[in-house]
Hints:
This protein is α/β, with parallel strands linked by helices.
Amino acid sequence: MVSFKLMNEDLIKLPSPEGHTLAIWKISEPEIPTHHHIYMTHGTFSDKRICRGIAFFLAKKGYTSWIMEWRGHGASSIPKEKYNFETIAKNDVPVAFEYLLNQLNIKVLSCVVHSGGGAIMAMFLVHNQQYISKINSITMFGSQTTGAGNSIKNHLMLYIGKYVTALLGHSYASKFGRPHDETYFMMKLWYDWNLSKRFLGENGFDYDLHLSKITIPIFSIHGKKDTFVATESGSEQFLQSFPNPKNKFLSCGKANGFSENYDHGRVMLSRNAEKEIWPLVLDWIVENNLKISN
Length: 294
């Protein structure tokens, strides 16, 4: 993997209006001037670690990355109140963007997000459309909202997963090596999106009706082995919600010339991804770096 030596990895703790602390990590190479700034975030059951490898890779190319950890994840504080995807999109991401664009006066960002971080990015932009012109491009790894239940088997797995999580009150992902568990309240929206095939907020707000307003170029990267969390058809369908002719979809597997059929995690973080996929993300960022950061 890319060497972390001589890299700067600085933790900034941002206060939220609700009284909790939001962690954002600045990853940069002290010997290389910053060409551009990248906003990153993770998905469920995760934290900054899924983003860290590609952030260091980009730092060596002169890009400063800012990894936001959701409330209750990583170095962010654990709030007492319940939260879900919509809470993070409407309350946490605006704190990070306010800090980066208004306090640091960064003019424009590129974005790299994993899994549920893609859904959250879409929800955030629907409610904060003033930031659309401030983003050069988005790279989504394994992101979709309504396509997990695309087979009888997957549909049954969704029903069982929702029922078991509701019964237990939270997942036991940490027992299987994942950094975080998630509560049923957090996961309910995701299960409902995929079971109903509708991308709805808690109060019935229909996000699908507003996704066409997000005209930022998007590169959607799918792992060929990911046949449940972010299926190929679900990932493609989500990308098609955003009307930009430059949008690009890539399924990473042996049939397409890759060294492995990547799964949901390895497509973003693995030695093979470092060699085969991260350079493609860099090319995408460079190609769409039409506005200067600072």
